[in-house]
Amino acid sequence: METKARVLSRIHSLYDKLSPSERKVADHVLAHPEEVIQMPLSLLAEKSGVSDPSVLRFCRALGYRGYLDFKVALTQDLAAPVKFIHEAVEPGDAPVEVAQKVFAAANRALLETLQGLDAAVLERAVEALDRAGRILIIGVGTSTPIALALYNRLFRLNLPVWVQTDSYLQLMHAALLGEGDVVFGISQTGASIDPVLTLKEAKKHGATAIALTSSLASPITEVADLTLYSSYHELRPEAASSRIAQLAIVETLYVALSLRRLETAEADERRIWEALAAKTL
Which of 61, 30, 62, 25 is nearest to 41 (CA)? Predict the structure, then answer.
């Protein structure tokens, strides 16, 4: 593990090689390192007076793969180990205090995600899904549960939807998509190679690419036609609050699509519940 001196000294040693906008980010990090470890990329960009991509370029100029990689390295030097479990907890917290802090983080993520939703992008995403000939949902690793949740919601509307969580099957399926189809990639960091490759493959054949991510400036956002953002503050991107925010977006898509298909949606839900009734004791 690098020491605090080594992480911050890397910024000092490379400072003269940074672009003017990257130096603005460097200045803010050097002045407020403890605050930066709790900032999402967009807030650091705002505080530094630069664009989101400038922050990403700053991280890569220092040799990190992206903002998350940089923030984790900085956090390892500045934060107590417990912060990797949850940013707000302290070692002596009682279970009820843990509950209060976990719920507060979830509430904050939900509110910030709602405030950051682009109405036009959301409308276009709903439109694309509603009109799609085929819909491929993909996610790997810790994004798998969100991909499955979206699949569960969309197939209830009798939409032509598939979900793939195997990276090879994702590419194979994407290769068969075409004009009028949609690929929906879920990646918390936006930097995982498999979703990016799958979206690229699908787009090559004319499909519309939608991404759900928490990273404002990441490889998947550069590929996607439409990007839906979820907020998170924890050091671990797979933390519960970030997943709750993504599930809220999934539910938003489902309800919005249901309103477009109100008569058939109600009938299909009734048929599903009637079928499930036999399994209820």
Answer: 25
